[in-house]
Specification:
The chain is built from two helices and three strands. It is of the alpha+beta class. It has one domain. The termini are far apart. The model has no long low-confidence stretch (mean pLDDT about 80).
């Protein structure tokens, strides 16, 4: 890997904005796919895994509030 490419990757990690945007887009797409396919969604709620039935999955702007984050993510 070239020095220039390494510096660009380091800058991305240092800033974090592009990474956070990509992660948010990926999570939103996964949530949308669960709803479209009629699959429940595992979320982290009150310190444990909870399942959201597909008919209760909200695809609105605040789909992933701190109270309902995908299982395995920190919710921070």
């Amino acid at each position: 890997m070239s020095d220039e490419r390494t510096r660009n990757i380091s800058q991305l990690f240092d800033d974090g904005t592009a990474i956070a945007q990509a992660m948010n887009a990926a999570v939103r797409e996964a949530v949308l796919q669960h709803k479209q396919k009629g699959l429940p969604l595992a979320v982290w709620r009150d310190g444990r895994v909870a399942w959201i039935p597909p008919e209760e999955i909200d695809i609105g702007r605040d789909t992933l509030s701190p109270k309902a984050t995908p299982a395995g993510s920190s919710g921070r």
